[in-house]
Target: Restriction endonuclease subunit S
Amino acid sequence: MTEPLWTALPDNWQIGQIKNVATVTLGKMLQSKDSGGDVCAPYMRAANVQPDGALSLDNMNEMWFGETELDQLSIRSGDVVVVEGGQGGFGRAAYIREDLAGWGFQNSINRLRPVDSEIDGRFIAFYLIALRASGFIRAYSNVVSMPHLTADKLARIPMPLPPPDEQRAIADYLDRETARIDTFIEEQQRLIEMLRERRRAVLTATFSANAGTESTKVGRLLEARPSYGVLVPSYVEESEGVPFVRAGDILNLAPERPMLAIAPAQSDDFSRTKLYGGEVLLGVVGKMGQAAVAPEWLAGANVARAVAVLRCKNPTTTNLLCAWLGSEHFLRQAELATSGDSIQPTLGMKDLARFDINLPTDANAANELAGQTRRIDTLIAESEQFIELSQERRSALISAAVTGQIDVREAA
Model:
């Protein structure tokens, strides 16, 4: 039996289920053709419901509905939409703040409509957000392969039932406090982008061809041709086995961060990309310019297909090469080399080896570059930590408020 979020509730609160406060309706299966007299209308789908209660309606799809059907599957202010299935998003919930006139919703969405005007849909949405963050939804959905939070299971989820005035007070408080936290997070994200632009500018200035740099080819700096990573045939997260660095891990390498793992041991086929520490890791699929030097604690790990491993002949060149991979000088050449692949740009290893690179010949210039990028990287890391702590604070605040652990009227 999955444990609820609370151990005790305020004396004037009751305990019920979702079905006691809202009707649960599953959306319509995708209909691509008019069956006669239908109307083509926009519809809500799983991709529109983002984490932490956000809605993204810019990417709108349409399908056919019967007129009566569209009325039954309407989306009104005060409703809550909950993602029904899918590994990445099942259980995500969002509150509808204004009528979506003419919209319906697909069967990847369950709509919760409060049973009367005394029930605050915002409280329901915040409660479901807290449940998902706690891991309750994943455990409750009994995930085996493709998880589904069916309408029936959703309706039977236990929930606290504070009096209507307290529901509104909690929702008002969380609207206000989460907006403050979200604003701070957005400011930090903008700061990170500005710092990364500054970093690129510093690198570009250093590696531009001039009297203080020496031009060569990337391949001449390496022990051997750079190697793609390997296809990971099967994996589990945070498990025993050989960890694999993905492209998304490169800029966030830390011992405590989970990576893909393959059990039980390193395969002989993977020996060319086995890490020993000190290699340059470069993302070569999709967004270019993500590079880092593999720390020593990664010794024995490997890299996934979207990552290339570059081993320098001279260890003193490693940090300079890694820095150059974040410069406009590299990015321009990468863009030209991948311009024919519009779906998923992939940088070829032969192309990379032939790229022109200009290295500083002045030791002082190299040291100054290292100092500047280190200071910028420290600021980026601090901002990322602020964001992580703010997200944890947001989740804890929502959980505490919807279970009565804090008196929001005193907090306000």
Observations:
- The chain has two domains: 14-161, 213-361.
- DSSP finds eleven helices and 19 strands in the chain.
- The CA atoms of residues 378 and 384 lie 10 Å apart.
